[in-house]
Amino acid sequence: MKDKNTEGSEGSAISRRQLVRYAGVGATLVAASPLVATGPALAHDHDDNDGKRGDSRNRVWRAGDHHVHSEYSGDFDTSVNPPRFSKGADAVYPIVTNAIMAKHFGLTWAMCTDHGGPTHSKVNLEQAYPDLLRSRILVPEVLQFWGMEFDAPALDHHTLMIPHHSGEAQQLFELESRFAKNDPFPADPGRNTEAKMIEFLTAAKGMGHKPLVIAHHAARSATGLGVYGQDTPREFRNGNNLAPEIYVGFEGAPGHQAGPLNGGARGGYGNHPTYGGYDQMTARVGGLWDSLLGEGRRWWITATSDSHVHWTRGGSDFWPGEYSKTYVLARQDYGDIMDGLRNGRIWVTTGDLITSLDLTASGQGRDAEMGETLTVSRRNRSDVDIEIRFRPLQGKNGNGDRPQVRRVDLIVGQITGPNANLDSDTNPTTKVEARFGPRDWRKSGQDYVIRHTLRNVETDLYARVRGTSTDEAEPLADGLESPWEDLWFYSNPVFVQVR
Fold this sequence. Notes:
This is Phosphoesterase. The chain is α+β, with helices and mostly antiparallel strands. The chain has one domain: Metal-dependent hydrolases (TIM Barrel), CATH 3.20.20.140. The protein has helices at 4-13, 16-32, 95-104, 120-138, 168-179, 194-205, 233-242, 280-283, 288-293, 334-343; strands at residues 60-68, 75-77, 84-86, 109-112, 143-150, 158-162, 212-215, 247-253, 300-303, 324-330, 346-350, 354-363, 366-369, 373-376, 384-392, 407-414, 431-436, 442-444, 447-454, 461-468, 488-491, 494-498. It has a 15-stranded mixed beta sheet that branches. It is globular and about 70 Å long. It starts with a helix and ends with a strand. 52% of the residues are buried.
């Protein structure tokens, strides 16, 4: 829930003159920018009858982005002590500009995740955080989380999302200053070890306000299919074993998706490509994600922009929400959105292929949805009914297109328990259970509905869904095709437990 003390401190810390100045900057940036879509802005929210139906807690699907960079992803002059920070070296937009663009492209929550560096914890605390407070006031329609792109010890970058509370700035300062591998000056090689990552997760787990940790572009450093780089299956398992309520997933669709529009690789995956815009760890059926789910892990995928510089200005990025969206089933409340991310009430899409997705498993008078578990009795040799309900885009996306869903796949895998091989990245039981085309779904209001029955379920399993605008049976390795012509959506799983 919102911390009332924090809201009060934000309001009192900024004068009316400062608000006018910041509002003018934001308005000028947007009005003068050639980067704003010429089509109508997407609605920033759903009303309670649009999106998730029948949720007694007034939750609806809310789009967001937990990996966005601002001008505070800057540079450090280490020829002086302490290092001198300068803004705008790697990413160029003010925090408020990102929030304005997130609102324009239909997001209701977002997170500024700037790079670390020597003594960056102090920059975050003293410079970036006050700008975030101003942005929250100027763009109240977008809930703006505080956190960073954490320089995870022994790993690639990760989201470090801090819960919204009166001590959020100090909490991030403590974690970054103590554990981020690039924060010490002079550099400390002892920070860049898996033991330090375990120490970080142990500290985070012990905090009263528990943060979230999500791996970024997890296979960007991989040199081949299943030949991993900085992030490995063993490290994911070890971290999730230690802090399952903290370390909860990775980006299924990484950012930098506009790379091909400037002759680069989608996601910046220069060593081994993405597949339909998704990381190999997610896109390969029976691959690493399925291996983790097959152990019964609650391990989720997200989709982000990783926005630094828009592609029309020479970068490789889309604005927050322009191309990739992470939908969370939640109230418009910091605490409930974070709860949705923690517990897998999440689905993701690119290019606004769809705007709503529900996945329900039912049996023996019970049902469960994304992130939840349906328990059925073994004695009854139960059938499990799967319902998939999705809503196509009614208007046009950020490219001025109205994409069409050509196929939806139901993917099912068995849950067989912990794997003794911490390096395992396969689940041989996972398969595409069924494929559905337009003739297989029926219209229900603005939605399309697909139903399928899993017969005589006798083992624990999970079910997940993906869909595409293409005719590819499996997502192909990405080249220089336009990302707008290769769209996919993925659900997180629903679990079935047989007892």
